[in-house]
Amino acid sequence: MSLFVPEFDDTVLVRGAEAELLGGTPAGVRLPADSSAGGGALSTVRVTLAEGADGARPHVHHRSAEMFYLLDGAAEILSGDDVVTAGRGDLVIVPPDRPHAFAAVPGSTADLLVVIAPGVERFEYFRHLQRVRLGEAAPESLLEVQERYDNHFLPSPVWDGRHR
User: Of the four listed, 7, 107, 126, 152, which is most buried by Cβ atoms within 10 Å?
Assistant: First the structure.
């Protein structure tokens, strides 16, 4: 096991109102602190989903684990071939190289704090996703940035059977 020691000297404080907001309904993504803010220790994203809305399609990270903390509502989270339902106050950690995805449970909203550790500069990835949603970039353009953001899409029959 290797130990990663982040390098930064000052406390990081990001006020909720200052965090960049992308999207809205059915999915809003708030960007509190990217990897560079905390010396590479972690990246944080807050995702708010309308009832039954998808948060992320199946993908894998090779260099980071991803933690999902349910602030409110309920979410289905794919981890490998398992789909778990998490509710308010629940925590799910997906290790590196494990396929995962998430969505609000049908009939429920979900408000999640997502932490990626060690951090990866990923805010520009979420801005790219927003451009795709707005039709300003082609969906295929995401394939070109998979390695840069350590976000590799893959098929998941388990997930696709539940989320079409």
Answer: 126
